[in-house]
Amino acid sequence: MKKWLLILFTLIVLATLQISWPSALNFFRIKPDLLLAFVISLVFYFNFKIALVSAILAGLFKDAFLPAPMAINTILFSLWSYLTFRLSSQVSTDNNYVRLIIILIIALLNNASLGMLSLNSGSYIPAGIFLRNLFISSFYTVVLSPFIFKLTKRIAA
Amino acid sequence: MFKLSRKTITSFILIACAAFLIFSFSALFKNSVQKTFKPQLSLIDLLKREFSGIIFYHRNMVELDRLSSDAGNLRRRLFDLREIEQENARLKSLMGFKQKSPLRLVASRVIARSPHSWSSNVIIDKGRYSGIRRGMAVINTRGLVGRVIEATENNSKVLLVNDPSQGISSIVQRSRQEGLVNGSLGSNLIMRYLPDDADVAVGDIIITSELSQVYPKGLLVGKVINIGKEFSGLSRYAVIKPAAELSSLEEVLVIIP
Question: Which pTM value belongs to this model?
Fold first, then answer.
């Protein structure tokens, strides 16, 4: 129960931080995806049930502040959580570098999916901005992931 | 690690996704989430302002001196303009002109921004209780900012002009050339579907046109900074620098029609 509360509290804090991210910390006008990093790190430190429910909650928090009517982040976060769980049963994810690579791949996939959906809905995004959002956002998320890992590890302890 | 069968996991994901997909459509859920986040967002906004006030103390002091002297000059000009306005009103009534109704504005603070980089929207701290409704235009002192896409009791979601799903029917102020202004997620906007012989030049001012269903006519959108040819070669486009600084919005004004 205490862990659930801690996770919920962390989710609210990270969601608040993400939507009020200081513009001074933006890198090429790009912000990191702290919620995604937290959702994936939960798979590494907690059981799948906790990770999946947290992924759905995190996706919902994110969707509540976005203009899109569809809960795309809820679906994507659940999917990434499930895929990471499947992957972690196939390969060892004890090493932090492996975890960072997994976060990078998932961040790239997540950004690519969101970008493609945006393009598919008829929005006009220049190629340069698409690539900037895709790569810089993913790398920025990876750079901040070690802090999220530490935080998750502390909650799990 | 907690083990579940593949079937259970898949069913759980499907049920959860379907349930929350439906919930996400309901405004009730979004309202409560936004309400939950409002106090800490307001607090963070306050702390940010206080910290920047301390960090940029000297810059603010110099700015205050400059603004105080500007305010003095503007007060004098305002007095002159009031005289002219009264004279204008008298002359208009004499000539039988129909007076245009003035726009009612609701001032609001930006408390949150889009959680990712694939859309450009902000959350403001006023909602339906202040008369704000979906579809209302939002400006700031510099120019057009966006439009309200969702309004709850105490918050509203504003889609900024640089969001790629935005399309604003606009005209070039000098030549009255029409075009569609789109957001591109970057710092500039793009005016598209300009004919090859369009009368548009670098430095031209772009304003909203009367064809726009959402925005009142004549709102300042921005300034042309570059002109190019579309990939198809059939039409041209103009790159526009928005009048409002969208990356550092703090206060906005919602136009109540």
Answer: 0.76
| Predicted-complex ipTM score | 0.82
Closest Cβ–Cβ partner in A79, A126, A137 for B117? A137
Is the Cβ–Cβ distance between B2 and A49 less than 8 Å? yes
Torsion angle (degrees, nearest 10) of CA A105, A110, A114, A117: 80
Q: Please check whether residue A55 touches B, CB under 8 A.
A: no
Residues in a beta bridge with B190: B182, B239
- Tell me the count of A-B CB pairs closer than 8 A: 153
Dump pLDDT digits (tens) for B56-114: 888 888 888 889 888 888 888 887 788 788 778 777 766 664 455 467 888 888 888 88
**Is the Cβ pair B41, A19 closer than 8 Å?**
yes
CB B146 within 8 A of CB B131: no
**What structural domains does chain A harbor?**
2-156 (1.10.1760)
State whether residue A49 sits within 8 Å of chain B by CB.
yes
